[in-house]
């Protein structure tokens, strides 16, 4: 619990990690695009660019008027293309304009360039695989579970009748919620995603549709991006300084140093914050909701309904301990912590309904719910 209390003070997902300790000027949940309104014609015309910004930064952007939820996913290929171009540029520039230049110099030792090539390609391959698995793997969706065969006349049925004929998923919180859009009972920790237009199991990201089945690939993607960029930046900068800079290398090599350094600064802290979230067993959405509620509570204001799974004291029902929290997302197979692959046991374990929990916290939570 001490580890979780520390996170409540310093971890504010939705802000840049360098500003975690600074004082909020506004609630994260109320942030909107400051330059356009959702009913603006200009906003609609610029939507592909705005969506690219939203997808790459995970900053919540409102839908333009007339757009259906999930319709803008047609532009989902654009972020993939941008990321691929950046990676191809760094890969070519590092190997051709830095490493091969050093290997052609007879007076320079070949040991360090060769070691750099091996590590560089290892991180590159793992980065590409984890990125592909993250993009191509469905996050896991909640489905309708009927007590009998699915009725043929479901469109003619009343809402109460539809609810009564569906089975409720198991819930340790005893508060299964109904999704009016998907017309189904949502399991614990599931949220409706306007991008996917579906209820995502243990939904983590608003725009990227990260859920229970691809959360591990998402973290591995962040880790290998950070390692890939860090190795590129550190080794390139060291070689650039040691071997007289532009007298041996060209401006493309210098741009590789700058670009990889920017990636380290931006993605590195973001990766650290997501590792922390896994260790305290919160998704980005759960943490954002908790921080918003906790901030109002600390101001001694009448706080709105507290997030599901959190007690009045701010304890998380699903927080077990750091080790169990990590295993729940990253697998009990230590090889899978680093390798972006799956196993049959892993697929069976991730049902998106049953999660580990702290018995004492759950007891306190249920007592508070029953008291109200």
From TrEMBL:
InterPro entries: Palmitoyltrfase_DHHC (IPR001594), PFA4/ZDH16/20/ERF2-like (IPR039859). Residues 174-289 form the Palmitoyltransferase DHHC domain. It catalyses: L-cysteinyl-[protein] + hexadecanoyl-CoA = S-hexadecanoyl-L-cysteinyl-[protein] + CoA. Keywords: Acyltransferase, Lipoprotein, Membrane, Palmitate, Transferase, Transmembrane, Transmembrane helix. It is a multi-pass membrane protein. Its main location: membrane. Its EC number is 2.3.1.225. It comes from the Eukaryota. One of its GO terms (molecular function) is protein-cysteine S-palmitoyltransferase activity. The chain crosses the membrane at residues 75-92, 112-132, 221-241, 253-279. Belongs to the DHHC palmitoyltransferase family. This is Palmitoyltransferase. The gene is Zdhhc20_2.
């Amino acid at each position: 619990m001490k580890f979780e209390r520390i996170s409540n003070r310093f971890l504010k997902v939705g802000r840049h990690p360098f500003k975690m300790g600074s004082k909020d000027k506004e609630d994260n949940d109320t942030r909107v695009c400051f330059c356009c309104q959702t009913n603006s014609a200009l906003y609609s015309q610029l939507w592909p660019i705005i969506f690219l910004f939203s997808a790459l930064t995970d900053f919540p952007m409102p839908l333009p008027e007339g757009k259906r939820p999930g319709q803008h996913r047609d532009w989902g290929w654009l972020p993939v293309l941008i990321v691929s171009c950046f990676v191809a540029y760094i890969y070519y520039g590092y190997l051709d304009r830095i490493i091969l230049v050093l290997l052609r110099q007879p007076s320079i030792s070949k040991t360090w360039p060769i070691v750099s090539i091996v590590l560089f390609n290892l991180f590159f391959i793992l980065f590409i695989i984890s990125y592909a698995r993250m993009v191509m793997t469905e996050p896991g969706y909640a489905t309708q579970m009927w007590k009998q065969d699915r009725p043929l006349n479901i469109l003619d049925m009343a809402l109460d009748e539809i609810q009564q004929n569906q089975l409720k998923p198991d819930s340790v919180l005893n508060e299964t919620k109904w999704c009016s859009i998907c017309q189904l009972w949502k399991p614990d920790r599931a949220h409706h995603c306007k991008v996917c237009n579906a209820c995502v199991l243990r939904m983590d990201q608003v725009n990227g549709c990260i859920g229970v089945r691809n959360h591990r690939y998402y973290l591995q993607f962040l880790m290998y991006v950070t390692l890939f960029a860090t190795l590129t930046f550190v080794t390139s900068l060291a070689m650039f300084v040691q071997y007289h800079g532009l007298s041996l290398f060209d401006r493309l090599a210098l741009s590789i140093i700058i670009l990889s350094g920017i990636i380290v600064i931006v993605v590195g802290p973001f990766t650290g914050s997501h590792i922390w979230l896994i260790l305290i067993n919160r998704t980005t959405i759960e943490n954002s909701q908790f921080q918003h509620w906790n901030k109002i509570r600390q101001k001694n204001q009448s706080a709105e309904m507290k997030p599901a799974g959190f007690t009045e004291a701010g304890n998380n029902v699903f927080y077990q301990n750091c080790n169990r929290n990590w295993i729940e997302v990253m697998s009990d197979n230590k090889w899978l912590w680093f390798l972006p692959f799956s196993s049959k046991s892993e697929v069976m374990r991730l049902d998106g309904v049953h999660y580990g929990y702290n018995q004492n916290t759950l007891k306190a939570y249920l007592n508070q719910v029953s008291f109200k």
